[in-house]
Amino acid sequence: MKKLIWAVGCALLLSACGDEQEVGDVSLGMLTTKDIKISVLVDPLVTGVTCHVASIEADLDFADPSDSSIACRQTGPITQEILAKIDMSKSGEVVFKQSKSILFKSMKIRRIYDPKSQTLMYVSYSTKETSGSYKHSLSTVPLWGTAAYQQK
């Protein structure tokens, strides 16, 4: 019983800590403790890309639902020098991580570069299977029109 009380206390404390990057909060109604939270993320290496992530947070649950959506756009310059700093492997690199439960589930955003189309891809995904699926969402930022774009 003490462990349960401690876990509930930790969950409430963590949910009370505001996300500095939160830019929107949509209530799903009076009879639910779940809200859609909208956060902004500027890519730490490709600072000319801003992503908005919508995910559901459940204030009184030990775990948030795994669903999320992501939309990324060019909001500043992207140069060859910036592009040279990113991981060019097929698995890319994690640029953001947020805990979604007190036990091992998190939401991650990974940046992957597609050299053929010269496009940055941002995939948001859950690290725990839910209802037979790993929930995920994809957004792309083409480099066409930027200083990073290479004519073929």
- Classification by helices and strands: mainly beta
**End-to-end CA span:** 65 Å
Shape: elongated
DSSP strand tally: 8
Counted by DSSP, the helix tally is: 2
What about the largest sheet? Answer: 4 strands, antiparallel
Contiguous low-pLDDT stretches (5 residues minimum) are 1-19
pLDDT averaged residue by residue: 80
Helix-residue proportion: 10-25%
Number of domains: 1
Radius of gyration, in Å, reads 18 Å
Provide the succession of SSEs: HEEEEHEEEE
Query: Which range does the strand content fall in?
Result: 35-45%
Task: For the largest sheet, list the strands in their spatial order.
Answer: 1-2-3-4
Helix-strand blueprint:
Blueprint: H1 2-16, E1 22-27, E2 34-42, E3 49-58, E4 68-74, H2 80-83, E5 93-99, E6 106-114, E7 119-126, E8 136-142
Antiparallel strand pairs: 1-2, 2-3, 3-4, 5-6, 6-7, 7-8
What does this structure look like?
With 152 residues, the chain is mainly β. The strands form two sheets. The chain has a four-stranded antiparallel β-sheet, with no helix packed on it. Strands 5-6-7-8 form a four-stranded antiparallel β-sheet, with no helix packed on it. The protein starts with a helix and ends in a 10-residue tail after the last strand. Helices cover 12% and strands 41% of the residues. The protein has helices at residues 2-16, 80-83; strands at residues 22-27, 34-42, 49-58, 68-74, 93-99, 106-114, 119-126, 136-142. Mean pLDDT is 80; it is low at 1-19. It has one domain.
